[in-house]
Write a structure and sequence with these properties.
Strands 1-3-2 form a three-stranded antiparallel beta sheet. It is built from three helices and three strands, in the order E-H-H-E-E-H. Strand 2 and strand 3 form a beta hairpin. It is of the alpha+beta class and 60 residues long. It is globular and about 30 Å long. It has one domain.
Amino acid sequence: MQILRIPAVCQMLGLSRVTVWRRVKLDPSFPRPVRLGASDKSAVGFLQHELNAWIAGNRN
C-alpha cells in the first residue's frame, strides 16, 4: 500500500491542488484522503491503488 501526498497526486492526475480538493468535496467517486496522524491538523495522503482505480473508471 502506497500513500501519495498532494504534490504527487497533482502530478499523477495532471490537476492543480485546488482542483484535487474540489474533486474531494464535490465528486463522490473521487478517492477520500486518509489522515497520516492522530491530530485533526495532521497531514493527509491518498491511497495510490484508489487513485489508479478512479483513473481507470473515469476514462470516457
